[in-house]
Amino acid sequence: MADEAVCVGPAPTNKSYLNMDAIMDAIRLTGAQAVHPGYGFLSENKVFAKRLAAEGVMFIGPDTHAIHAMGDKIESKLIAKAAKVNTIPGFDGVVKTAEDAVKIAQEIGYPVMIKASAGGGGKGMRIAWNDEETREGFRFSSQEAASSFGDDRLLIEKYIDNPRHIEIQVLADKHGNALWLNERECSIQRRNQKVVEEAPSTFLDPVTRRAMGEQAVQLAKAVEYSSAGTVEFLVDSKKNFYFLEMNTRLQVEHPITECITGLDLVEQMIRVAKGYRLNHKQEDIPINGWAIESRVYAEDPYKSFGLPSIGRLSQYQEPLNLSNVRVDSGIQEGSDISIYYDPMISKLVTYGATRAEALGKMEAALDNYVIRGVTHNIPLLREIITHPRFISGDISTNFLPEVYPEGFKGHQLDVTERRELLASAAALYITAQLRSQKVLGNLSPVEWNQWELHAELGEGGFFVALNVPFSVCEQVEVDGEKVEVSGQWNLASPLLPWRLDGFHSCCPCLHFMLAAELNSYMPEKVSEDTSSILRSPMPGTVVAVSVKPGDTVAEGQEICVIEAMKMQNSLTAVKQAKVKNVHCKPGETVGEGDLLVELE
């Protein structure tokens, strides 16, 4: 969409998007008058904003005082207290060593949250329930903070168990005017990173909403904030709310606020940066309808609710044929998903007059989204938005581990869904045979008046019968039960719309017959003794190796650390054993499943 693009360096962020010299060169080269910093990287970096100002270039965001005050979680908490904003109990200074962290955590009382002072987006955050986890959390949080933000300072505060994460969007100008633009519910998370957001929240009543909004504006005015910003709160079951942090930038999830208020936040940021006054008053800010955002990631949802996946998008089709659907993405068919950046593919947003309508549109949008070439999290997203607990609004930041205590295993078919799937597969199979007959002159068994098929699904076998020629609407019999299947299908299309027993449905279509045929040639996967070998669970870079051949490791002891998509992951021994061989070293790039360490 850009008129010009300038390469700012190689893929590693410290050589490109965090390289201020390279970005300043790009600004001079293009003659840019202003810079919108986006969501991450240098968007909350006061040094970058100062360098722009020195060059006479406008930074589309708040001034450096507000960035510094709110970008530092330690200082921001002190300012919030002074502005009479509710805050979480904790230590209001910088934690210098792991042993200091343990001492502070013991004084606060477990559990505690260890956080990067300059952080955001879930980077540099760890929950600790005991002294050992505090030491480990201190090390990983400081390393992630240094890698992502160039600042390894940490703070520690009380961890509020089972809260909701609700944030208030604020907008302020350079003339002392500030507004709160209602809330966003961001409680569906994994590893402290948001997965599904919605606006408004099902939980807040008008009184609590106003109290949170007014406190958010108090904080913005306390730091003379100008631009769009977000004040994040944790809210407990009794609707007590506590200041978490302020993001002095545009949030990833800003589209859902735009949907319910009718305001274009990026436009407002540009107007404020130019010096215009806000052209709205607080009473002008509505809540019109409901909006939901699903973050579509290149991740394997069956591993810890989403471990990064890399690869090339061989096929990509956004569901923009549907009404009230918005897709914000930075990729296209043929793009590569690499290990160097956040694995987000897009932000999928739906809007409706009611929450039920917005949820229905989200379900349809997920069903109509085509992504091939990388593993993605759409199966998990669809399960979340159709789960009874989510539909009822009974959610918290612990939603995923509570609903899926053994991890996400995919959708579990009930009897009716299994029957519909078998009927659909049989109908598609016959459709493919008819096409073969027409195109290739293959007159084999399709000339029969009725087909009787044996279909396998999971561990079971099923009897399926249907008439031929296959008409637009057909009754398919599955183990004696009838399912009405209707539709006119183009098997070259990646999506096949149909009706099952009168209900509209849509499903992605792979080259199913070829896949089934080739699957018979695949060698059976031999199970490994995973207690004696350690393989990389994801593609990434080896940051540290803590053992060498001959060492004896205890159960739970760290063996190595893999960094993927700016997150560090500690891999540990599952038993006490002696190290036989080490197959990796720091700085190496590894793929998913690569052998790292062997134990005796």
Automatic annotation (TrEMBL):
It catalyses: propanoyl-CoA + hydrogencarbonate + ATP = (S)-methylmalonyl-CoA + ADP + phosphate + H(+); butanoyl-CoA + hydrogencarbonate + ATP = (2S)-ethylmalonyl-CoA + ADP + phosphate + H(+). It is found in: Mitochondrion matrix. Residues 525-600 form the Lipoyl-binding domain. The gene is LOC115249561. It is an enzyme of class 6 (ligase). Its EC number is 6.4.1.3. Residues 79-274 form the ATP-grasp domain. The keyword Transmembrane does not apply. Pathway: Metabolic intermediate metabolism; propanoyl-CoA degradation; succinyl-CoA from propanoyl-CoA: step 1/3. GO terms for cellular component: mitochondrial matrix. GO terms for molecular function: ATP binding; metal ion binding; propionyl-CoA carboxylase activity. Keywords: ATP-binding, Biotin, Ligase, Lipid degradation, Lipid metabolism, Magnesium, Manganese, Metal-binding, Mitochondrion, Nucleotide-binding, Transit peptide. One of its GO terms (biological process) is lipid catabolic process. InterPro entries: ATP-grasp (IPR011761), ATP_grasp_subdomain_1 (IPR013815), BC-like_N (IPR005481), Biotin_BS (IPR001882), Biotin_carboxylase_complex (IPR050856), Biotin_carboxylation_dom (IPR011764), Biotin_COase_C (IPR005482), Biotin_lipoyl (IPR000089). This is Propionyl-CoA carboxylase alpha chain, mitochondrial. Its cofactor is biotin. It comes from Takifugu rubripes. It comes from the Eukaryota. It holds the Pfam family Biotin_carb_C. Residues 1-405 form the Biotin carboxylation domain.
